[in-house]
Amino acid sequence: MSSEKKCLGCGVLLQDENILQEGYTTSIENDICQRCFRMKNYGEYQVVTKSNEEYINILKSVAETKDLVLYITDLINLEKNLEQIRNLIPNKMILVLNKKDALPRSVKEEKLIAYLESMGIHFEEVIVISANKNYNIDYLLRRIKFYQTSKNVYVVGHTNAGKSSLINKLIQNYSDNAQELTMSPLPSTTLNTVKIEINDHLTLFDTPGLVQNGSILNHVDEKMTKKISPKKEIKPKTFQLRRNQSIVIEDLIRIDYVEGEKNSFTLFVSNDLNIKRLLNSNNHEILKDLNKVTYQVGYDEDLAITGLGFVKIVNKGTIDVYVNKDVETYMRKSLI
User: Fold this and answer.
1) Residue 42: which domain range?
2) d(CA 67, CA 152)
3) Domain contains 243
4) 216 exposed, middle or buried (CB, 10 Å; 0-12, 13-18, 19+)?
5) What is the structure's pLDDT at 251?
């Protein structure tokens, strides 16, 4: 039978009739679906695909409230279009820059905040946190209280930004609620809106992550996904490249330095990834079948690779990037 009871892990309606459909559980008496149970206890992940249209409709319904919204984004993988969610939701909104713990400690949060504020997108405030390390969570809660319009606060963002991690941290720190959201390094873990009562003054609504169609995570297996997701502070790797030299990350991407003076390339990606420098063009058969994109690089720019991280490039030059045709890459002014 199906019911009006929702899974406490991902928010989907529970049902015990069809094992192949989302929300399946062995008994309606259970609090979480089979998918969340197996993910939580065995680390197994079952892919469920929803269209972004469904997610966008959920975000539009948030816009119909007048409630405060927390927009969570991942500092290692800032979205190219931060306006997308802001344009859908006119509510008061705090931009929360998560995963500060993955960036080198030397990176000052004031600089990160200034970088985001320079984009000219209106947020009530930009706050840097680490849900993983419990950094700045007390301050975030104080600012939530300051901007709240009712007890309800909505949490939005793209997949894998750390929304559920943040909510679980807020539950642990400030609530007697035993509920725990399902977390995973893979996309689309939260399938529907999940209501979490933190205390008498604050109820959070976790919304499904907007899927980044251009993310490299959509094109790798589970083992590589875990490798790509940084588990600790990134130790940046810097290479001094001359013309016709290249950098290869696993079998995911090749970056050729085509034209320009000697240049510095610093990679901000997971420490677990295998990175090689190729010193001459004889090695250019590697990954040559991937899609090639050419960029004219200005001074102090980043090559952002959606889902993977970014490469800081100091001087002007020309690069060729070989990567899966469906993975989004783009140039931006340097974050760091």
Assistant:
1) 1-46
2) 6
3) yes
4) buried
5) 95
